[in-house]
């Protein structure tokens, strides 16, 4: 029988543990952890994700700051706001909400590099990406970290397995590949230019998809017993949130699968809060 990898349940376990740890730390240090989010423009989906992050901060008693920069701003304006947060002692974590508006996407690397590495709770600065490549996952990207945590909780073996990742972004594919390699998985990273993609999917023991294409993974493209991690976000014709995977069509061929919603999304939020708390502890001991 297929195992449903429920990220919502595990998220609650993680947040409950963090709540008690944060209370003890806040009482002891007389200071709460702090997270700042930066939203450029007025994208509705991004605004929704920002609200979710601040709601969890309130639940955990994490101080949170919502920085909203109008779309008419310049790159210099954004850097000024980042620098203020770099210098703000109340802030332990800085999150630049992605994706950026089209006019700034060419500047992504420059903006990420402007965030102080010890406040980069998204794990996307060159410094922290480099640490992840070297095996230090303390501030690894939140989504890959959440994926590995979910697999670990389910006691799914990675060592020796054929791992296929259909995503090469710095948010998912690149750091996740390094993290699977650390655990002795045999990793193939696929993307829009990959030839014979079906061949790679068919041989995967663990298949991670983050393409943003509805029903991209169907039963004929996978082998029996595969573990599927669906990191895609889409909406169907009825407006219902879905992933990349034809969930009902493939689940009976899987040994384990994540649902959408309720799979990787909640784990990303949990790992973001974990990274914020880790940053708080590191900075307060400096």
UniProtKB/TrEMBL annotation:
Domain Tetrahydrofolate dehydrogenase/cyclohydrolase catalytic, chain residue ranges per copy: 5-122
GO BP annotations, alphabetical order: L-histidine biosynthetic process; methionine biosynthetic process; purine nucleotide biosynthetic process; tetrahydrofolate interconversion
Ranges where the Tetrahydrofolate dehydrogenase/cyclohydrolase NAD(P)-binding domain occurs: 142-280
Keywords: Amino-acid biosynthesis, Histidine biosynthesis, Hydrolase, Methionine biosynthesis, Multifunctional enzyme, NADP, One-carbon metabolism, Oxidoreductase, Purine biosynthesis
Gene3D superfamilies with a match to the protein in the record: Leucine Dehydrogenase, chain A, domain 1, NAD(P)-binding Rossmann-like Domain
PANTHER family (UniProt xref): C-1-TETRAHYDROFOLATE SYNTHASE, CYTOPLASMIC, C-1-TETRAHYDROFOLATE SYNTHASE, CYTOPLASMIC-RELATED
UniProt-recorded name of the protein: Methenyltetrahydrofolate cyclohydrolase
Origin species: marine sediment metagenome
